[in-house]
Design goal:
Helix content is 34%, strand content 23%. It is α+β, with helices and mostly antiparallel strands.
Length: 154
């Protein structure tokens, strides 16, 4: 996971498991810990070399599998409580968790920002998507119990 996930709000969280072939099964989740939960998810098989490149590209730090599962499932639960379902591919990618026990993780994760949801509207979000998210938050929480910010391209 990115070491600054809870400062930036959004980041790629990845689980990899060795396969008998020597390749790695990879489940990746684009996690928004401030509001939307799992924004994207995918599963595929990579070579060890591709795995190293992936970790370097996203500047990922190692995390215990139980904590990774706890983090991802907590983000999904938080977003669901706000009215947002995880990405449609989440269920398929989450199968890689298998029997990993999230209760074995001693870490405690706090979702939202400064005690309430923060919607980070990204340049790739269409105006219709942003309106839908803001309307959902307003219906669930009222107009003052969440924050929204528009991010610019950098």
């Amino acid at each position: 996971m990115p070491n600054d996930l809870f400062e930036t709000g959004v980041g790629m969280v990845v689980l990899a498991r060795a396969l008998p072939s020597g390749e790695l099964a990879l489940a990746a989740f684009l996690v928004d810990v401030y509001c939307l939960g799992v924004k994207d998810a995918f599963y595929y098989v990579v070579t060890p070399e591709q795995w190293v490149q992936f970790v370097q590209r996203f500047n990922l730090e190692k995390i215990h599998p139980s904590c990774l599962r706890k983090l991802v499932e907590g983000a999904v639960d938080y977003a669901r409580a706000l009215g947002f379902a995880p990405h449609p591919d989440y269920a398929g990618a989450a199968r890689l968790f298998g029997s990993i026990d999230p209760a074995a993780c001693p870490a405690r994760y706090t979702y939202g920002k400064d005690g309430k949801p923060l919607y980070l509207s990204r340049p790739e979000d269409s105006p219709a998507q942003s309106r839908h998210i803001l309307n959902t938050l307003t219906r669930r929480l009222g107009p003052k119990d969440f924050t929204s910010l528009r991010q610019s391209r950098t």
